[in-house]
Design goal:
The structure is a single chain. The protein has helices spanning 82-86, 234-244; strands at 14-15, 21-23, 26-28, 34-35, 38-39, 72-73, 77-79, 93-94, 98-100, 126-127, 131-134, 150-151, 154-157, 173-180, 196-203, 219-220, 224-227, 253-256. With 265 residues, the protein is mostly beta strands. The protein has a single domain (14-46, 71-256), classed as Alpha-Beta Horseshoe (Leucine-rich repeat, LRR (right-handed beta-alpha superhelix)), CATH 3.80.10. Strands 1, 7, 9, 11, 13, 14, 15, 16, 17 and 18 form a ten-stranded parallel beta sheet that branches. The protein has a four-stranded parallel beta sheet with strand order 6-8-10-12, with no helix packed on it. A hairpin with a 2-residue loop joins strand 2 (21-23) and strand 3. The N and C termini lie far apart (51 Å).
């Protein structure tokens, strides 16, 4: 495991019939390497294990926040197994990237990883750079991330059974927000606290039916991209764009492949 970093480039203009690079259910964007719904990112763990959780606390949406003394990893971390995830128990801050999962290896047949829960991250409050959860096959909710209140970029990509992101309700500022290839995600409820992003991509989430959870966004410093969310009415995306205002979107606008269903009055 080694250190890793990422970035995203944006450009001006508007596109309504394309503008997104499709790659086997994923997108390619700027300096972020996104393929088959995932990111490439390396990391390493620097810090001792141990359980720093206080007694009597439960994390998750609707639960109590655990009592956790500060425990910092001053590095980037990539997690590829449940055992590696367990080593993060009690960690409150990761100054670099945190990547859970990896880009699928189709040559070996290994495409997704098993992470039934993220309970070991109940104390995590801050990820200094990119926080990526990608290509998991049994993760259904992010309930164990209820303490998380600060990230750099946020990527949720290729998580086949993810249905609920409401535990991320403490986030208010995200760099690049990337939500793609989550086949069973129906809403983004819980992200209402986010008011500003550097760029936003929502793509290939085939059951995503509403984006009310993005209603708090008032400023997009880069791209605004909604592509191939086939159950999402295009009028909802246009309404979000109108609420933000084109003068508050600095990059290219791409709206393509949504549903023609009408929006509620």
């Amino acid at each position: 495991m080694g250190a890793g970093s990422g970035g995203t480039g944006t450009s001006g203009g508007e596109t309504h019939s394309g503008g997104a690079d499709h790659a086997a259910g994923g997108l390619a964007s700027g300096g972020t390497n996104q393929g088959t719904g995932g990111l490439e990112n390396d990391g390493g763990v620097d810090g001792s294990g141990g359980d720093a959780e206080g007694s009597g606390g439960q994390n998750g949406s609707g639960g109590n926040t655990p009592v956790c003394p500060d425990k910092v990893i001053d590095d980037s971390v990539t997690i590829l197994s449940v055992d590696e995830l367990g080593a993060l128990t009690g960690v409150t801050q990761i100054t670099g990237d945190l990547t859970i999962g990896k880009v699928p290896d189709y040559s070996s047949g290994e495409q997704t990883l098993a992470f039934p829960s993220l309970a070991s991250l109940a104390c995590l409050r801050t990820v200094g750079q990119n926080f990526t959860i990608q290509n998991t096959h049994d993760l259904e909710t992010l309930d164990d991330l209820g303490s998380l209140n600060s990230v750099g970029d946020l990527t949720l990509s290729g998580n086949a059974h993810l249905t609920d992101v409401s535990a991320l309700h403490e986030l208010t500022r995200v760099g690049v927000l990337w939500i793609s290839g989550n086949a069973n995600l129906e809403s983004v409820e819980g992200l209402e606290g986010i008011t500003r992003v550097d760029a936003i991509t929502v793509a290939f989430n085939f059951y995503l039916a509403n984006i009310d959870g993005l209603s708090g966004i008032t400023l997009v410093d880069g791209e605004f991209r909604f592509v191939q969310n086939t159950s999402l009415p295009t009028c909802e995306v246009e309404a979000l764009r109108a609420r933000i205002g084109d003068e508050n979107i600095s990059g290219e606008v791409t709206i393509d492949g949504g549903s023609d269903d009408p929006c509620d009055p």
